[in-house]
Design goal:
With about 350 residues, the protein is an alpha+beta fold. It has three domains: about 5-60 and about 95-140; about 150-200, left handed beta-beta-3-solenoid (Ribbon), CATH 2.10.270; about 220-360, Cysteine proteinases (Cathepsin B, Chain A), CATH 3.90.70. It has eleven helices and twelve strands. The strands form two sheets. Strands 4, 5, 6, 7, 8, 9, 10, 11 and 12 form a nine-stranded antiparallel beta sheet that branches. Helix 1 runs antiparallel to helix 4 (about 105-115), helix 1 (about 5-60) runs parallel beside helix 5 (about 120-135) and helix 2 (about 60-75) packs across helix 5.
């Protein structure tokens, strides 16, 4: 039998053990909670450091990202940015937008600000990166063309500016909108697609036929059309009456404009052989023989038609170049009709076959 005192002592010992056990459990619980909280804090700090590093990388490379994105948008111009209409204004670039992409000083300030503020979660980083993307995507189409192709301007016009990007021409107005549809520019009708890409440039030159009275007078009749377009009131008959005749086409007409000679041809005259006559009506008339093709196109851009000497498989001929596109040209053919369309490369080959002869004003 166990005595009462002994039972009490045993009970006290058991109770003490339980209390100690409960205390240890409580301590372990507190320590576990503390460790969990500490691990959470460490994980959060690691997460913050990772996000801060990501932000630093994003901001540091933002200027390069902006350049790459701009180039990408220009390449896919028909589907992303170059969709303005003639009455849709494009917001010009602000100095802040430029600095956000190109200023190293602003980049460093943004890094410091990001570290000072801390990056709490993904939404914070998305907010910052979203701001950067907004700056990049706010580049208007006209500014992309200008800023990435500063050395490739085609020319300046009082009504706006020709610009060139990725092989495509655009006409940018002073308010930074791009031309669409057909507009009148420097005496020419210039057509653009719905996104502002140039399609063609054409001049409306009144047509004069060489038939039936001047079957071999294509040079004279083409010159008549050119002079008339320049504002000179002269007829083909008046030019014929002023022609010089010579066995050398550089000096004058070699045969007859109305009948066939012994050679089976009516005769020819080259630019130098008719230039003096044309200058008596229009002082600015000049020989363009041997000009590079891009200069020929610039004359059309400036509303000036060009008399072009060509050699086709059938005959030597003179026509008036009145327009061009990427693939075609338009000519007033005094033997056929107004605005005859011909493949550009074919026409250039015919022109080359005749010695690249041409004249304009």
């Amino acid at each position: 039998m166990v005595s009462a005192d002994s039972h009490k002592s045993e009970t006290k010992e058991i109770g003490g053990d339980k209390a100690e056990e409960s205390r240890e459990i409580a301590i372990d619980s507190v320590l576990s909670a503390y460790r969990a909280k500490n691990d959470s804090i460490k994980a959060r700090k690691a997460h913050q450091n990772t996000l801060a590093a990501s932000l630093k990388h994003l901001v540091t490379t933002s200027k390069y990202f902006g350049i790459v994105l701009i180039a990408f948008l220009v390449v896919f111009t028909n589907t992303i940015l170059l969709r303005p209409t003639s009455d849709t204004a494009i917001t010009p670039l602000t100095s802040q937008a430029v600095e956000a992409v190109s200023s190293e000083e602003l980049t460093e300030n943004m890094q410091l600000e990001a570290v000072a503020q801390g990056i709490e979660d993904e939404s914070d980083l998305s907010s910052v990166s979203g701001d950067l993307n907004t700056e990049v995507n706010s580049y208007p189409a006209a500014e992309i063309i200008e800023s990435t192709n500063a050395a490739n301007y085609i020319g300046i016009d009082p009504e706006g500016m020709w610009s060139y990007a990725e092989g495509i021409r655009y006409f940018v107005y002073p308010d930074n909108t791009v031309a669409t549809g057909t507009i009148q520019l420097n005496g020419a009708s210039v057509t653009f697609d719905d996104y502002g890409a140039w399609i063609s440039t054409r001049i409306d030159v009144a047509y004069v036929s060489q038939l039936p009275d001047l079957p071999f007078g294509c040079e004279v009749v083409s010159s008549t059309m050119m002079l008339n377009h320049a504002g000179v009131q002269v007829t083909k008959g008046e030019l014929v009456s002023g022609l010089n005749y010579s066995g050398d086409p550089n000096e004058g007409f070699t045969g007859s404009v109305t009948s066939v000679g012994r050679s089976g041809l009516g005769g020819i005259v080259w630019p130098k052989g008719i230039l003096g006559l044309l200058q008596s009506y229009l002082e600015s008339a000049h020989d363009m023989s041997g000009s590079p093709w891009d200069e020929i196109e610039r004359y059309i851009d400036n509303g000036k038609p060009i008399c072009m000497w060509i050699t086709t498989p059938a005959l030597d001929h003179t026509v008036v170049l009145t327009g061009y596109s990427a693939d075609n040209v338009w000519i007033n053919d005094p033997q056929v009709e107004k605005d005859v369309m011909m493949n550009k490369e074919t026409f250039k080959a015919y022109w080359a076959a005749n010695g690249y002869r041409a004249l304009s004003y």
